[in-house]
Amino acid sequence: MRKIIFFISFLASLIGFAQDGSLDMSFNFPGTISPETILKVQPDGKILLVERFIGRDGLIESTRISRLNSDGSYDMTFAMGIGITILPEVTTFAMQSDGKILIAGKGIFFKIGDTTKDNIDSFQNLTRLNQDGTLDESFAKVDLTGIETIAVLPDDKILIGGNFTKGVARLYSNGFLDPFFNSPINVKTRDESVSNIAIISPDNRILVTGNVFVNGIERRVFYLNSDGKLDTTFNEPLNIDWGDENSARPQFFAHEKNDNVLIGGTFRVFSESNETTGYNFIRLSPDGNLVTLFHPVPYTNECVLGIFPAALQDDGKIIMTGNECIDYYGTEFHGISRLNNDGSNDDIFNSGNGTNGPISNVAIQPDGKIIIVGYFNEFDGVAVPNIIRLTTERLSASEFDSLGLSIYPNPVADFLYLQYPEGMSDVDIDELEIYDVTMKKIDFDGLNNDVIDVSDFSAGVYVIKIKTDYSVYTSKFVKH
Questions:
Q1: From CA 367, how far away is CA 413, in angstroms rounded?
Q2: Where in the chain is the domain with CATH 2.130.10.10?
Q3: pTM over 0.85
């Protein structure tokens, strides 16, 4: 009976080993949403949607805020499941530690269902919702316009950035302005603004991108200390041409665990002799030096220029989205792909034929699965709503680590090595089997001095099963 139970469990685990990047059929959204929706995932896995609806003049004319359960169904505990309407536009939002939601934009009317409350006037561009979607009327009015980004500090104080005089301001958790934060930014024109801010632990430094003047010097990416003063240890590289427009600035940024910074946008990197060396996606060191050119010359072609970073996974891998590209550094690109930390293509991630239209927003759930929304109605040839979820297992060097047994390298080219915990050796192994993702058992030469020869295996994802007297270990590995 134990063997039957194990086989059923093992069979289920194999079925669950879908290729990273494939469609997750357990996510079921009822219908379609605005392709210009902004996504944000809560710590509990629920998904906040800010749907932005474009009018005939090409401008956002209304916004609806709703929340999904982690399986894609509407959360009926938020605004009765019908959502909240803001007229005309919400530009950004963030969550505080108590689950309340900060929203900013060009709000005039706050509306739930058929009830309209004139609680947000043209000068009230930041407000707060309770966890259930009702308006939090205890939140103070903020007399600042042009807010483009919000970040919440560990103590629940609020940082906002945008097209107002000081570029960045800090508020108390109740919305009142904190007078002890002194920004060195001076915004003078409508083209200048702070577009993104992020809090960097543990010292609460502030990573800022935009197009502003700081202490009289034009900057696109920089750090502020926790009190608002400029962090002079970081220097923006001088060999980046951000473009001809005054408003040109990074569209994507992310802070890596080693304090490097990823920057994406429409820009050119050049050498001392003014020759172009790369485009649109770079990594900077903690002091601002250029570390990685993800789109170097001469390998960058026309379609590569339409592919940009969209999200950073917690394992350091990078989600890329953009145009269809037959030759993206030797691979085909179909709307979405994933890079390894070093910029090489992640062979574990395979979205097949991908989306049949552009992806506008990406969010990653706590379990690593990827939510995408955009201008598409097919994924890998299958009709889908325009918000879907993709699978991802986020393979580490080994999934046996918690048990002390490991396999490496992973992905592997020729030889897969086993490393045992203390007190264990190959004599403790009763069975060693390898399966492909169709549950077909693979013939191989077995274990030889703790090494498995996989050089003749076809490229793909495999499952290794190791049985001892006490336990059965299973894990995935990828053969290049």
A1: 28
A2: 22-391
A3: no
